[in-house]
Specification:
This protein is mainly beta and 74 residues long. It contains 1 helix and 5 strands.
Amino acid sequence: MQATAYTFDPQTRSGSVLLDDGTPLPFDAAAFDAGGLRLLRPGQRVRIECTGPAAGTEGAPEGRRVTLVTLQTF
């Protein structure tokens, strides 16, 4: 799934992304580290993987969790 980097804190390696429908979805350091990135800038297009109920659907229901954040490549 694709999203746009919205916030990122390099000290905690956590932040949030915006889904294409504008819904913010937070990610933790484990999801950031899984992608092998060193830095993320707001506005960058990223690919994310999620787990939990309704993963891959519109919105961000309770229990949805980002497990990977990496740069989107074409």
